Amino acid sequence: MSSASKKAKEIEDPGSGEGVEARDYDIEIQKTLEEIDGCQNQIDGLNEKASDEILEVEKKYNKLRKPYFQKRNDIIKRIPNFWVTAFVNNKEIAEILEEDEEDALRFLNKLEVEEFEDIKSGYRINFHFDENPYFENEVLTKEFHLGSSGDPASQSTPIRWKEGADLTKRAKTKTPLKGRKRPLKHRSFFDWFTDHGDPSSDEIAELIKDDMWPNPLQYYLAPDIDIENGVEGDGEDCETEEEEEEEDGGGDDGDEGGEGEEGDDSIVVVEDDVDEEDEEEEAVNDEDDGVNEEDDLLVDDEADREDGDGEEPE
């Protein structure tokens, strides 16, 4: 904390645009700043204490979760290709999977994430494999920990590839698929496994540890979940609407010529004929009405005359 005699940093005067020196903090402000600093130190101390207690709680629940993770792995073994299906259904992991690597991961029978006793010091990911035509290892482990300098570091099990089956060499000879974006610099899954260039930002490891491992079932069931949520149904609705619009558009085009015109003309002609017939009937009726009215007038005149002739003068 600066003393009362220490002057504040120069600030820019928005009016003049030149740097001017602010006045010294007065005694009251200086005391207030020192009180704020004291409160902040207490808050920081509580935050550190909370972090330590949270770590202790996490350690406790890691031990409580462990038997359930083991039980879940035993159940998963009953489902063929569970883990490779979950990996393929995860968009980020799927982006770095080559076809040959998918075949190799079909032999993956168990996945484990183990946090160290001191959680802050690191964790390891264990991949357990059945006997396969690619490598001799039964377990492949990639580990993340704090190095001697305190910086994150990683290491992994050397893969004992069988003759002609090194998938890292095969991946390097292939050109990336068009439109495929790979996270970081990894071109394939086993490239990621053997790479230790930047462990502090290993997105794939963090994804497996914090997302895949806690709940792999959500990825195994991903397509079914999409169907339940109506994802595919929405697509079908869109396609149906587009087809209906195309059909409507086709009808509009047909109105401009061909059968459409004949259909419209025939309707108009029928309506015109009906109107003309109605008009003719009305005209005939009008003529009949006129004739009848004239006859009625003549009859009335004759009746008046007869009445007039028949009357005797007084």
TrEMBL record:
Which spans are transmembrane here? Answer: none
Instruction: Mention one GO biological process in which this protein takes part, according to its record.
Output: nucleosome assembly
Q: Hey, which family's this protein in? A: Belongs to the nucleosome assembly protein (NAP) family.
**Can you say what this protein is called?**
Protein SET
- Record's SUPFAM superfamilies? NAP-like
Q: Which GO terms describe its cellular component?
A: nucleus
Disordered, as annotated region: 1-23, 146-166, 223-314
* InterPro entries for this protein: NAP-like_sf, NAP_family
